[in-house]
Design goal:
139 residues, mainly alpha, 4 helices, elongated
């Protein structure tokens, strides 16, 4: 009989999670952290690189479907590229908790409704309480 292996924890496990993660971990450890890091990067760009912001023209008023930021700079761009991998990996592990494959990320290709389907599926629906093809339920 072999002893059970301890769960891995560390920066590499945050950057590239595997298996399944529960909703709470996704919201607190990924969405909140990524949002805070994005705000910090944007603040650094506004402070250190005020003239580097790309200005994208859009019509007057507020448009909820406009996906591009009005401002950004080199630090924001680098942070977005670095945080893309953990963001996608965390969404995939949440989809695995719901017993869905990573192909569900293709919902993002549908304008307007695709991101809403993924947000509800990944962020608000409970994972399966039994083992599935992606592993046992998260603790």
């Amino acid at each position: 009989m072999t002893a059970p292996t301890a769960a891995r924890t560390g920066p590499a496990d945050w950057f590239l999670p595997t298996g399944r993660i529960p909703r709470r971990v996704w919201w607190v450890h990924y969405v909140l952290v990524l949002a805070l890091l994005g705000l910090v990067a944007n603040h650094i760009d506004a402070t250190w690189f005020p003239d580097s912001y790309p200005r994208l023209e859009r019509g007057e008023g507020f448009d909820l479907l406009w996906p591009f930021p009005d401002s950004g700079g080199p630090v924001t761009a680098i942070a977005a590229l670095v945080l893309l991998v953990p963001n996608v990996a965390a969404m995939v592990t949440r989809l695995h908790d719901r017993d869905h494959s990573a192909w569900w990320l293709l919902w993002n290709l549908l304008p307007g409704i695709g991101w809403l389907v993924l947000l509800v599926t990944v962020g608000f629906l409970r994972g399966h309480p039994y083992p599935n093809r992606y592993g046992p339920p998260p603790a």
